[in-house]
Amino acid sequence: MHSGRLYVEFIAPNQCKFFKCSPHLNGYKFSSFTDWHYFELMYVKRFMEGNIIKLKWWQMALITLAVSYAGRLTAGKSNTANQKVYTTKLKQAPWAPPAWVFGPAWVINNFFNLLALQRIWNMKDSPEKTKLLRMQAGIWLIFLSFNYIYFNKKSTLLAAAWTNADAMLAISSFITALKTDKLLAGFYLPLMTWTSFASTVADYQAIYNKDHFLKSKAIMN
Predict the structure, then answer these.
(1) Which of 2, 15, 32, 90 has its Cβ near the most Cβ atoms within 10 Å?
(2) Helix 102-121 vs helix 57-73: angle between axes, to the nearest 10 degrees?
(3) Cα 198 vs. chain centroid, distance in angstroms?
């Protein structure tokens, strides 16, 4: 005790002389137990329950590669077979990118989307956080199921619906995040830009190709 104030002092990592608390509090002074209790509720409890996630860049990169690879596996076919579907079996838009571009593009998209997810998770509870987490769930569900419905089932109509939904979720997430966190909003720019462009390619495919899964003819020849 120092001058009638409660002084937090450590005797071991993750321990306090008087209270169990976070090592980040070393040297903090509190004028009363009420002040300490409030600080504990707002900070220490959040830390000790493991709610804060802060991954290093290389950890995020490894997770990105793993998630991107998992998305490719859902097609149930080799990468060569997937490229063959894209390049030879479907009529493509004149502005469609080469098949090899999609892999690197989605690695970049997933990396920034994981950064966004981490930042959202660490936000204080709010309606915006709940909304952003729900949209994150939709974005990841679309990513992990897209290759299956596109390459495996060869459904151009569902692929277009998936891609447009992905773009709408990215745009909505960007707008929602922009109100409170510009850095978080910036993390959505790669996904928003890519899916907005990819939607035009997917719409072209849906119009000019038959859908093998839904057994529908091409809208235009």
Answers:
(1) 90
(2) 120
(3) 18
- Please state, in angstroms and rounded to a whole number, the distance separating the CA atoms of residues 68 and 109: 10
pLDDT digits (tens, 9 = 90+) for 72-86: 888 776 667 666 777
3-state secondary structure (DSSP) of residue 20 = coil
Mark whether 10 and 82 lie in a shared domain.
no
Two tokens, residue 192: 């928003």
| Residue 138 belongs to a domain | yes
Range of the domain at 152: 57-208
- How crowded is the C-beta side of 57, counted as CA atoms within 13 Å? 0
What pLDDT was estimated at residue 82? 66
Residue 46 burial (10 A CB sphere; 0-12, 13-18, 19+): middle
State the helix-helix crossing angle for 156-178 and 127-147, rounded to 10 degrees.
160
Q: Say yes or no: 155 and 111 in one domain.
A: yes
Q: Is the dihedral of CA 50, 53, 54, 58 positive or negative?
A: positive
Q: Tell which residue, 39, 109, 127, has the closest CA to residue 67.
A: 109
149 exposure class (CB count in 10 Å sphere: 0-12, 13-18, 19+)? buried
Instruction: Spell out the residues 6+ positions from residue 124 whose beta carbon is closer than 8 angstroms to its own.
Output: none
Which residue is listed with tokens 């993750």?
14
- 96 and 201 in contact (C-beta within 8 Å)? yes
